[in-house]
Specification:
With 254 residues, the chain is of the alpha/beta class. It is 45% helix and 16% strand.
Amino acid sequence: MRSTSMDGKVVVISGSSTGVGRATAVRLAHDGATVVLLARRKLLLDEVADEIGPHAVPIVTDVTDSAQVRAAFDQVAAQFGRVDVLVNSAGVTRIRLIEEASDEDITVSVNTNLLAPIYTTRAAIPLLKAAGGGDIVNLSSEITLDHMPLMTLYSTTKRGLNGFTEAMCRELRRDQIRVTLVILGAVGDTGFHENFGPGDLERAWPIWEADGYLTRMSGTQLLTSAVVADVLQNILTGPSELMQDVIHVRPAHS
């Protein structure tokens, strides 16, 4: 039976420079894990590494680039020889009608939300097997449970991630690798706002309110990255003989 402690484990986290990825890195490092931080922006990555201290291994990586992902995991293999946990936290969203979406909108959404976790999972599997098993956690959204106007790109790519997670759960179970899908309600302290253009939210909010999505799902109550990090820590330290295929996290009072 694998240990349920995070002490000494090697954890790779994509999107670790902001939001849930950053909070999870800090939380797991506090519990004794060595956290490999993958993100594009070196300045933000260095900030997280400085906050964590010697348990952090920052690797500047664009996870939408398969060559950079391979290089990052080659570095992990050379330094540690194994991976115990992979958390796919990187994500982007664009507020668009499909007819308005640029090629760049589509490419960034598909590459970040779907291709990136496929690349990281592919690279992590041999190192998870070398550890004798481990965990992959993919972060999705409750937008996949309902339709949200102007968010088709995000919804579609996250639904793709949901399907990929289900397939990996079955494919990797025999290798003692648990694959968990975590469906999140809206998280307030992320970097998602960086994806929005001028006037995007102002245009979208009344449409979302009229549609009723905000009240059907998590409403106006927001999760925090720290709370989500605690949830992920609980998943990763749960009994290894238990499968936790899908977990939906949302505010208790919406």
